[in-house]
Amino acid sequence: MRCRLALAASLLALAFVRPVSGDGEDFPWLTDLAAARAEARKSGRPMLVVFRCET
To answer: For residue 28, what pLDDT is reported?
Structure first.
């Protein structure tokens, strides 16, 4: 039962996920590491770094 509830909750959460449009012009911390560090320091939240390779 718990597994079904967790699965339902995760599927519901996916409905609110959306990709960032553009090249991050609205959010400079998406493409600039120094800006991301400053934003993490200012907000008090940890910074998550994701590397994506396109070939």
So the answer is: 72
Closest CA to 50 of 26, 25, 33, 28: 33
Domain containing residue 47: 26-55
pLDDT of residue 55: 67
pTM of the full structure: 0.44
> How far is residue 4's CA from residue 1's CA, in Å, rounded to a whole number?
5
> Cα–Cα distances in Å, from 33 out to 7, 10, 28, 38, 47?
34, 30, 9, 9, 10
Establish if 6 belongs to a structural domain: no
